[in-house]
TrEMBL record:
This is Thioredoxin reductase (NADPH). Residues 10-315 form the FAD/NAD(P)-binding domain. Keywords: Flavoprotein, Oxidoreductase, Plasmid. Gene3D superfamilies: FAD/NAD(P)-binding domain. One of its GO terms (molecular function) is oxidoreductase activity. It holds the Pfam family Pyr_redox_2. InterPro entries: FAD/NAD-bd_sf, FAD/NAD-binding_dom, Ferredoxin-NADP_redctase_2.
Length: 345
């Protein structure tokens, strides 16, 4: 790493400032580890894109996503955590202290590392999506839905995120069409029922978006849908099978097709990741990764539950595990022959 080492060695650096990172920061700060939280490209994480959180324990009337993370940050700061804007480009984890190279070029050193870098919205790969993202194409209905008052819009996906987006958009849009690549939703029964019962929401089964129409000047003006009665039409098209193609006029398109974990900065390290990039941690209730001293928390290591409350839970576990690891390491260092000699002199 050719960049400048700007500070001393931290006890623990937490990468990510969503619920998992904040919870880890509260625990690490209360243990007097003076953690540094690197806020990442989306400070506050995915909750900042949510309006109301109804299922976080302790808030019977719900709580705003932004408010929840803001309160978490204040709580961590109260115990001595510090926050810094910064995105980790590369990590060097051969031995502790570990080195983290930030996009600014600065390098930070830390004895223990908590990776709580979360997951980002997945894109579907439709033609023109790079150009149109932010111009009528969005991955966040709660952020951009209000721009589509009176529009017809598409929501892509069949999981809880897509249902949530569709239900939110139904408050503003004239019509919402959920486009799903199979004929069966992945969403939970309660979310699926709410969407099906909403009169503004329609479903297009066995369909996928292949192209987005419009320009940055006009915004989204439509999309091309491909359909095959057996589902997964784009894969069939790639296999040379014939699919039905239809152009639809819409003023907005929302992706709700899941997330990808933000672990690219660990690509050159020995931290193990699964085939989709999720951190592999030790089996059972553990946050340890394949590299001693590196711990995972939140959505970056959890492809299954992905809830704010579980992220907070694993965040606290990662901080407790980091604290134990640092203590064990300090004891080991004290009992080395060199340390014993020093103590006896
Ligand atoms: P998900 O459950 O993984 O669903 C993703 C959906 O997108 C699936 O229907 C999938 O189709 C489809 N999809 C994926 N890639 C696609 C592509 N390239 N083109 C077209 N369609 C594609 O993700 P999620 O909905 O974000 O939910 C993630 C987790 O968060 C779940 O555990 C969920 O319960 C939870 N969650 C809960 C709530 C809530 O309760 N309020 C809200 C949001 C999320 P297939 O079904 O064919 O795979």
């Amino acid at each position: 790493m050719g960049a400048t080492h700007t500070e001393g060695v931290y006890h623990v650096v937490i990468v990510g400032s969503g619920v998992a990172g904040l919870s880890a920061a509260v625990y690490a700060a209360r243990a007097d580890l003076e953690p540094l939280v690197l806020e990442g490209p989306e400070p506050g994480g995915q909750l900042t894109l949510t309006t109301e959180v109804e299922n976080y324990l302790g808030f019977p009337d719900g709580v705003g996503g932004m408010e929840l993370v803001q309160r978490g940050k204040e709580q961590a700061e109260r115990f001595g955590a510090t926050f810094r804007h910064g995105v980790v480009e590369r990590a060097s984890l051969e031995e502790s202290p570990f080195a983290l190279e930030l996009s600014s070029g600065d390098v930070l050193e830390t004895r223990a590392l908590v990776v709580a870098s979360g997951a980002s919205a997945r894109w579907v790969g439709a033609t023109n999506e790079d150009e149109m993202m932010g111009y009528g194409l969005s991955t966040c209905a709660t952020c951009d839905g209000a721009f589509h008052r009176g529009d017809d819009v598409l929501v892509i996906g069949g999981g809880d995120s897509a249902m949530e987006e569709a239900l939110f958009l139904a408050k503003f849009a004239d019509s919402v069409t959920v486009v799903h690549r199979r004929d069966e939703l992945r969403a939970s029964d309660i979310m699926a029922r709410r969407a099906r019962e909403n009169e503004s929401i329609e479903f297009r089964w066995n369909a996928e978006l292949s192209e987005i129409h419009g320009s940055q000047e006009t915004g989204v003006t439509g999309g091309t849908l491909v359909t095959h009665p057996a589902g997964h039409p784009r894969a069939r098209l790639e296999d040379g099978k014939s699919v039905e193609t239809e152009r639809v006029d819409v003023g907005g398109i929302f992706y709700g097709v899941g997330h990808v974990p933000n672990t690219e900065f660990l690509a050159e390290t020995s931290v193990e990741r699964d085939e989709t990039g999720y951190l592999r941690t030790e089996p059972g209730m553990a946050t340890e990764t394949a590299v001693p001293g590196v711990f995972g928390a939140g959505d970056v290591m959890d492809p299954d539950y992905r809830q704010a409350i579980t992220a907070a839970g694993t965040g606290s576990m990662a901080a407790l595990d980091a604290e134990s690891w640092l203590e064990e390491r300090a004891l080991e260092e004290e009992s080395t022959p060199a340390a014993a000699l020093e103590a006896s002199q």
